[in-house]
Amino acid sequence: MADVADKAGVSRALVSIVFRNQPGASQETRERVLRVADEIGYRPDSAARLLARGRSRTLGVMFTVHQTFQTDLIEGIYPEAERLGYDVLLSAAVQGRSEAKAVEALLGHRCEALILLGPDADAGYLDALGQRAVTVSVSRRVPRARVDFVHSAESKGVRQAMDHLVELGHRRIVHIDGGRGPGSAERRRSYRAAMRRHGLESEIRVIPGEHTEQSGIETGRLLLAERDRGLPLPTAVLAGNDRCAMGLLMPLARAGVEVPRDLSVVGYDDSHLSHLMPIGLTTVRQDAVLMAEHAVRFAVERLENPQLEPREAVLDPKLVVRGTSGPPPGEAS
Amino acid sequence: MADVADKAGVSRALVSIVFRNQPGASQETRERVLRVADEIGYRPDSAARLLARGRSRTLGVMFTVHQTFQTDLIEGIYPEAERLGYDVLLSAAVQGRSEAKAVEALLGHRCEALILLGPDADAGYLDALGQRAVTVSVSRRVPRARVDFVHSAESKGVRQAMDHLVELGHRRIVHIDGGRGPGSAERRRSYRAAMRRHGLESEIRVIPGEHTEQSGIETGRLLLAERDRGLPLPTAVLAGNDRCAMGLLMPLARAGVEVPRDLSVVGYDDSHLSHLMPIGLTTVRQDAVLMAEHAVRFAVERLENPQLEPREAVLDPKLVVRGTSGPPPGEAS
DNA sequence: TACTCGCACTAGAGCGCGCTAGTAGAGCGC
DNA sequence: GCGCTCTACTAGCGCGCTCTAGTGCGAGTA
């Protein structure tokens, strides 16, 4: 910075002013300073800036690599953060790197707020986090924790999907749940409620699973094994999310079970992959961009107005009918 | 920190020593300092620490969200970095956020080294970057730029794939290239060379594309439209990467073209999705974990020994035969 | 006694910025 | 000419830490 100041023939303070885009420098000087900085390859040091200013204007985002819906969210987070003048730092939870570790890394880099995409941690931990920093949880509801919360109305999404299937004539509809995955509990509950509402209480079946392709594959194998033992296949499956639905399709296709002729499959999320499958996945769309924008705005607003209480945003999901759902076998279409 | 020092009756320097776990303080004092710090709720400020120490021990990783192979790489980067005592910061290039911006963010947060996953930037920019910070490029070769380089031997991978197809009896093999995508140029060149080597020079056809599902879908539509005009379909397609291959399968399936009976498809990368497709994608495996480890090690070693010259690691890819490749139509299997 | 050595600890100079309080000079009205 | 304001710019402190170069002291050695 001193080098830039010398070479541009101004004081360090003026360079600072230019880089913060603050009034107090002529247009001419501004350009000269920026040009010199570019030549030297100078870049403001955020650590020093942070130290001097006390604020980092940085949002930390914790996500799970491979969760396609979360990468969709990230795409929405960047532009909104930039619009509001905030920087974004990403930290991934992966195999062998827990959420807590990912979060510590963010905090260690002085993020002012945390945006957690589908956190798996317990409410106590999240509440403690919420006391320490502004925290937003996306896709996971955490009652009584001091965190903002952005999710979509799982019950509405599930209801739409179930109504769609029942209208097509399905009765034997099973649900692969998402285990501890975000939104799973609500989806499971809503599935049960929908079955009861349609008088299908006796057909309720929840197969434990996860939000992964592997889980879908395993469920597929399970169902096929049952069929081979003489049990009937369900006529429709409501998967925990799109990845699970995609996994499910693999063993089915291999075994010659045709979708949707023999079996209908509905996913959840409408992640960017779901319309890329051979016949397009019928799924429940959550608007990732909108969710991302809400999350960023919640964080920033609470940062700039600390007495604000955490809020909750519930967005409406929407069923997207594509190629994997149709009338059950035995019914004319 | 001063408060802790006062209350514990020592100097700030000693508190610093205690918190850095360095020799130079008695066990007794150590405990007293830690106890007092805990009472006050003192935590070292990493921004100040960073500033004072001059080293951040942080690696910055630039990646493209949605490139599944890159997320596979990220999974490999974390554990290796942790093993070597380095922190990792992620920055994504997305629509509307260029690579340069993503890199600036990393540099601004004082990353000591940059690991760029499949960078798209030109050699001049990368060289400039390499002068300024230790830089590693993964999957993209940048001749004469001051960067380390980790990639796999594209020519070997393509040759294996092509030999496989030719052995099966294919002659009309087209290649969807990856445009400016990492490795595309080499793959394209190797495809041409392999065709010539097999005496198929007259059959060479490279369809321009990208490393996206969308590109595969468009190519599929193009080929189908040609077929409808009476032109023959190719019997095999070597896609630019797995995503492109997956996209290609969609319009084919819709149009009733059966894979691999009517058409063989080979991908590239073996990203974690390729074995999750209905019939498993035949593809060229690049070992993401190994590549990630090399990248981290290159960065760290050059950081700790600055007179080291940038190096290059070329890993051997390996063809993985799954369900999308078979003999061409008209040949007995 | 005089010395060296090692240990526990301290003083104080930065690290690269932001920010407050200030100055110099131009322009203006009276 | 004077005082005033406004713009463009500067000096220098301080953010919370690390690190170098010390000081003081007791034990061991000649």
From TrEMBL, chains A, B:
GO MF annotation terms: DNA-binding transcription factor activity; transcription cis-regulatory region binding
Keyword DNA-binding: yes
InterPro entries named in the record: HTH_LacI, LacI/GalR-like_sensor, Lambda_DNA-bd_dom_sf, Peripla_BP_I
The HTH lacI-type domain, residue ranges: 1-53
SMART domains per UniProt: HTH_LACI
Keywords: DNA-binding, Transcription, Transcription regulation
Pfam families per record: LacI, Peripla_BP_3
PROSITE patterns recorded: HTH_LACI_2 (PS50932)
CDD domains: HTH_LacI, PBP1_LacI_sugar_binding-like
Name this protein carries in UniProt: LacI family transcriptional regulator
